[in-house]
Amino acid sequence: MGLIHETDYGTPAAKSDKQVTLTIDGRSVTVPEGTSIMRAAMEIGTEIPKLCATDMLDSFGSCRVCLVEIDGRGGTPASCTTPVAEGISVRTQSDRLSAIRRGVMELYVSDHPLGWDANSGLGGSEFDAVVKSVGLTENRYGTDGRNHVAPGNGSLNIDYIARDTSNPYFAYDPAQCIVCSRCVRACEEVQGTFALTVEGRGFESRIAAGPTNFLESECVSCGACVQACPTDALREKSVLAMGMPTSSVVTTCAYCGVGCSFKAEMQGEELVRMVPWKDGKANRGHSCVKGRFAYGYSSHKDRILNPMVRDKITDPWREVTWDEAFAHITKEFRRIQYQYGKGAIGGITSSRCTNEETYLVQKLVRQGFGNNNVDTCARVCHSPTGYGLGQTYGTSAGTQDFDSVEATDVVMIIGANPTDGHPVFASRLKKRLRQGAKLIVLDPRRTDIVRSAHVEAQHHLPLKPGTNVAMLTALAHVIVTEGLFDEAFIRERCDWSEFEDWAAFVAEPQNSPEVVGALAGVEPEEIRGAARLYATGGNGAIYYGLGVTEHSQGSTTVMAIANLAMATGNIGRPGVGVNPLRGQNNVQGACDMGSFPHELPGYRHISGDAVRDIYESLWSTKLDNEPGLRIPNMLDAAVEGTFMGIYIQGEDILQSDPDTRHVSAGLAAMECVVVHDLFLNETANYAHVFLPGSTFLEKDGTFTNAERRINRVRKVMAPRNGLADWEVTQKLAQAMGLDWNYAHPSAIMDEIAKTTPSFQLVSYDYLDKMGSVQWPCNEKSPLGTPIMHIDGFVRGKGKFIRTEYVATDEKTGPRFPLLLTTGRILSQYNVGAQTRRTDNVVWHDEDRLEIHPHDAEQRGLRDGDWVRLASRAGETTLRSLITERVAPGVVYTTFHHPNTQANVITTDFSDWATNCPEYKVTAVQVTPSNGPSDWQVDYQDQARQSRRIARRLEAAE
Amino acid sequence: MTMQQASTQIAARTAAIIAEHQGLEGPLLPILHGIQDEFGFVPQDALPVIADALNISNAEVHGVVTFYHDYRRAPAGRHVVKLCRAEACQSMGGDALAAKLQALLGIGFHETSADGAVTLEPVYCLGLCACAPSAMVDGEVIGRLDAERIEEIAAEIRA
């Protein structure tokens, strides 16, 4: 297991059909037209020394090290900026070139720290390698003159600037910097934030994060600059502390649904850093602050490493052995089933765990518990996506890969905040927008993607929360009544009479932009403009998030989106499609793996005899043909006294599910709550058994991201808790008497492939060979399926469905005049269990309530004041943030911190089809406050009591 | 309070200057010139307003402002003397004139006198090499400088 070395071709690949043949050092090479000489040389293994060039960035030509000679041309052009030409003959080595390169490097070295230590450098940078490769042995200029290196020998050196260590994860040492601008260009071209610049000119030129330090600047800490830096000027603090890594393993990030590939770079069993992998097809070598740096939670002191049991939730925890824990669960679950019936227990699979692990949990429930009481956290996020896209197109997943955005002309973002929630995809999107693609945003908030450096939406429709369906139908109204639909596509791919029925519906006057605009608080002309742009602007792609699904009409909204894409023919080729941005790393996979009470793996209904037969014969068990309970039903049943035991794998339902009081009442009513997690999360306050979990670094498996891409997760260290999560579930199943003998997660995947048609060809060997594949991956599409519905919809004909707008029952009134909506922030992830245990808290250490200045003034609130936030369900307190990002009448908060308990406020209204909770609309009132609410005080008290662990007594001397 | 007023005033006047130039192709430099004309320097508080209006980052504005020495970070003196320090003027005795002028004004290069009367700056070529050594006083170029002329300039400024 060595260090994975990725080839740097120096400049990006050229996209051209025309091939050009040239000679480099006497060897012939054929490359696409537009390729640089530098890249062409690297294609045949000839590495030309370079400093300012890297294949993640456009060529720049500033360092003057990569010079070459071309027969018949004068001078020594830079190979990075000189494109290949037919028939030319290039020399990369000659005495003249060597002399020039040495001369250039000698000048660099004369203003660069000597010797390698923590204060100068590590000796492992690209700069150090180039010094060696050009054969530089002396520095005739010395280092005494004016320089950026030394703090001054007793006198002041005005050119010296001390190291900037303000960012928690990396340091910037101006003394090491050669001002090649790679970091500035990475921030612009790759990340799209433009937080870095070259300050001053001439000898005073320096890289700067604007007029301030890195932490206080516009920097989002994505790490692209650190990755791009060819010197030790920008360097991970972990590397400065531990030295360079010695081995690396490619794995998949466990944060959001983008599913970035990373190299976990190690020294033995210690993780030194995470570096995005260029061959990762979701991220193409880019990363965000979470995946790149926020992995410290895996070794945080709060992590629980031993199983624990207690009789009552008021008792302190007692540490036990694994076997004792499994025996206790088995005894309790069997007792409950005997006492209350077979259906009195169930399980929840985790979207954070691997496909293999979620598969095992649903198998345990179906085979071991003998019922279908299994659900997953997708219930509370994207269950309407599965339902809506399944009904209209025939598959419960997005239609495209992320590369598709490169061919998009018009992007419509609905209820998603990609720069915070899916930052790596947002960077790829912003790159396309800077190339000229147009943008439409439907969001109550003015998110960063609506307007930030070099990106500006053509149309922002700041609709009132809860009016999605009306708004999308109004867009359809314009497309239909103005004749902008794609008749040929509809006639070929859909049912024309269904379309006519739908068209007649959307054309009704109550669906016009004028009526809907008044209802949703949006200018009708903006709605018309957006509809025309989407329908006529070329390849139109829709990306949407939880702002679509987490509503009482979430499923209807998904269908309305599907209708729009079909009506305009934006399905079935690169650059178009309907793309849910999935929240968690493996929420797609958890859904695929049969985590729903009504579906077996591959979205096959439990009532289908043929499907049940497959599993019944393999598992030698009779399966229940009736769907089981969903999470909210389990909680209801618990309160009623008919559901008494639950196994929760890696999900914190108390913090993440709506109406916290209801959740806590349900959990408190149960007799055996088993929580399997890294930390004593909020749900664990109500648990009787705690099974310690393992991190993504500690196990093998696969995650499936938002583009249906199955990515390998590879173990880089032994589980600190002793067992990987799949082993925990397997041992529990064995304790319950099931004959499970998986030696490795690959055996679980083999079983999945054997029983699930869309995974037919998937195996660990195949994934190792292919890197990753997008399901369906079977005999029909052995390479996987980057883009779905190419020649026809999976269900046959695409189905247009009427989308009648029914306003939510959650309405504002005199007591609760404002609408609360919730969301995320870049540096924190979901309930924050991981990111709150990292240095990411420097960017966001509490949840704040965003409120418009107008609403704030009416209530006499100043920025930062404590406010009481109350709804019909409950109340909490937090500090205010006055901003015009939200419209008057709308307030917004994140839900990353348990003390805020934003879900105390949210109600139990939910999607009509899937029970996905209506997080995004709650009628609230905001008033000044001077401290935490009674609930918060009681809750914290209960949480503190509940987290006590009775330490084993040491033997007395 | 006065500080806050000042910063909101800067923002308001900056916004007016931006509005005047925003339609131009490449409006940043004309805007910065307009701001320097208005305030006598480019106030730090103006930068975020410009960045927001042009939809570029604060860092980009900072990069441009710091690149051009002519954009001042602080107000200049009532008079600005720029003495050419480039090769042709040096060869015609520029070094001696520089020393004399600094002594007469009592300040070094890049400095403003304590009474706010004058700011002295080096400049690298005014395009007057044929009449070297040369200088620019309050925007007006002066060629064929000698010790006597330097004394006259200093006296005028001190008057």
Write the layout of secondary structure elements.
The complex is a heterodimer of chains A (957) and B (159).
Chain A: E1 19-24, E2 27-32, H1 37-43, E3 69-70, E4 89-91, H2 95-109, H3 126-133, E5 170-172, H4 182-191, E6 197-199, E7 206-208, H5 224-228, E8 234-236, H6 237-242, E9 247-252, E10 261-267, E11 270-276, H7 289-293, E12 308-309, E13 317-319, H8 322-340, E14 345-349, H9 355-369, E15 374-376, H10 383-392, E16 410-414, H11 418-421, H12 423-434, E17 438-442, E18 451-452, E19 455-456, E20 459-461, H13 468-481, H14 487-493, H15 496-506, H16 513-520, H17 524-536, E21 540-544, H18 546-549, H19 554-567, E22 577-580, H20 587-592, E23 599-600, E24 604-605, H21 609-619, H22 631-640, E25 645-649, H23 653-656, H24 660-669, E26 672-677, E27 689-692, E28 701-704, E29 709-713, H25 725-735, H26 745-755, H27 764-770, E30 772-774, E31 818-823, E32 848-851, H28 853-858, E33 866-871, E34 875-882, E35 890-894, E36 922-928, H29 934-946, E37 949-950
Parallel strand pairs in A: 1-4, 13-37, 14-15, 14-25, 16-17, 16-21, 17-20, 21-22, 25-26, 26-27, 31-35, 32-34
Antiparallel strand pairs in A: 1-2, 3-4, 5-8, 6-7, 9-10, 10-11, 12-13, 12-27, 18-19, 23-24, 28-29, 29-30, 31-36, 32-35, 33-34, 33-36
Chain B: H1 2-21, H2 28-39, H3 46-54, H4 58-67, E1 79-84, H5 87-91, H6 94-105, E2 111-112, E3 118-123, E4 135-137, E5 140-142, H7 147-158
Parallel strand pairs in B: 1-3
Antiparallel strand pairs in B: 1-4, 2-3, 4-5
Helix pairs in contact in B: 1-2, 1-3, 3-4, 6-7
